[in-house]
Amino acid sequence: MSMLLSFLNLTQRFGSFVALDRVSCELNGRAIGLLGPNGAGKTTLMKVCLGLIAPDSGEARLFGLDVRTHGTEVRGRLGYAAEGAGRLPGLTGVESVAYMGELCGLSRRLALRRAHEVLDLVGLDESRHRPVETYSTGMHQRVKVAMALVHDPELLLLDEPTSGLDPESRDDFLELIVSLRQNAGPAIVLSTHLLHDVERTCEDVIIMHRGRVRYAGSLAALQGPSTQRIEVRTRGPAAALLTALRARGAQGAPGRREDTLEITLRPPLGPETIWQAAAELGAVIWHLEPQVLSLEEAFLATLAATLPEDL
Predict the structure, then answer these.
(1) What pLDDT does residue 307 have?
(2) Which residue stretches of the chain have pLDDT < 70?
(3) Which of 157, 158, 172, 227 sees the fewest Cβ atoms within 10 Å?
(4) How many CB atoms lie within 10 A of CB 69?
(5) Same domain, yes or no, for 139 and 261?
(6) What is the pLDDT of residue 2?
(7) pLDDT value of position 311
(8) Of the residues 219, 240, 261, the one at which a domain ends
(9) Domain extent for 233
(10) Cα separation of 289 and 299, whole Å?
(11) Domain stop point among 191, 219, 247
(12) Cβ 63 vs Cβ 2: under 8 Å
């Protein structure tokens, strides 16, 4: 079975700025978060997937197909909702979606039928017959998703879909994404800088920072044993132990008590790193307890980790 997404040494430069720096990963999930701060390279990666940008080097494959040599076929199997307004002035919601269906090759009759079906799916009621200029931001987002779904794609790319939404509209929109995932809809790639959006809707995640992939895999693994947060209580020089652990590549901070440290370890570091550092200092550890990382803690630890190519 072909991977849904596969990238190999993908590099994209804009002048002296490196937007994608040897991006390599592959995932086959149903709901994938593309997570990173603004400027991390997320939108550039999406544009490469769509064939809107030809990378300087490397390879991008969707459904096992190289986007350079099979761009038309790949795009026919994709739906894309870009960041921003994306409205068609002068048209109603249903006319906008039907028009997109015709652009995707559907007959006018089928495009109109599909437009009503996907507008039902995204929860846009009788307001579909109003001009799009009268819509709220949340309604615009729903129309954009309907436009991306009208031709029944296998993969839906969403770029910052909750940007500009109020809390209630954002919650409703995330619920829509969950519903699409659970009801035999297309696979979804959700690009966002908001951790909560990924945690709420996705099973897998690609974390990007400064054009590089820092992590690609399941959310469960990101927050699980591969990234460990350990509470350490010691009889001895806690500050010196913290300094020694940081020198070994661990992240950490003083805990709530004077004798307590909160230590975060990523492979190849493990609990033995703590024992070795304590033994060298003559510190006695009398309490060592693994903690469950929140997504935010795992995300920050991932960004802080040093990659081999950084050395």
Answers:
(1) 54
(2) 1, 85, 224-227, 292-293, 305-311
(3) 172
(4) 9
(5) no
(6) 74
(7) 39
(8) 219
(9) 228-292
(10) 21
(11) 219
(12) yes
β-bridge mates for residue 65, sequence order: 62
pLDDT value at residue 64:
94
Q: Helix 137-149 and helix 167-182: axis angle, to 10°?
A: 20
Q: Is residue 304 part of a domain?
A: no
- Are both 243 and 104 inside the same structural domain? no
- For tokens 């015709």, the residue is 102
Based on the domain organization, do 255 and 128 belong to the same domain?
Answer: no
302 lies in a domain? Answer: no
57, 92: one domain: yes
Q: Please indicate, yes or no, whether residues 57 and 101 belong to a single structural domain of this protein.
A: yes
Q: Both 77 and 141 in a single domain? A: yes
Give residue for tokens 């200092």: 281
Asked whether residue 196 falls in the same domain as residue 278, the answer is no
CATH of the domain at 80: 3.40.50.300
Residue 298, in any domain of the structure: no
Region of 82 on the Ramachandran plot (φ > 0 left; ψ -120 to 50 alpha; else beta): beta
SS (H, E, C) the chain: CCCCEEEEEEEEEECCEEEEEEEEEEECCCEEEEECCCCCCHHHHHHHHCCCCCCCEEEEEECCEECCCCHHHHHHCEEEECCCCCCCCCCEHHHHHHHHHHHCCCCHHHHHHHHHHHHHHHCCCHHHHCEHHHCCHHHHHHHHHHHHHCCCCCEEEEECCCCCCCHHHHHHHHHHHHHHHHCCCCEEEEEECCHHHHHHHCCEEEEEECCEEEEEEEHHHHCCCCCEEEEEEEECCHHHHHHHHHHCCCEEEECCCCCEEEEEECCCCCHHHHHHHHHHHCCEEEEEEEECCCHHHHHHHHHHCCCHHHC
Tell whether 199 and 242 lie within a shared domain.
Answer: no
Is residue 309 situated within a structural domain?
Answer: no
Give the integer Cα–Cα distance in Å for 169 and 155.
24
Half-sphere exposure of 93 (CA within 13 A, CB side): 27
Q: Report d(CA 168, CA 158) in Å as an integer.
A: 19
Give residue-wise pLDDT tens across range 155-175: 999 999 998 888 888 998 899
By residue count, the chain amounts to: 311
Number of domains into which the chain is organized: 2
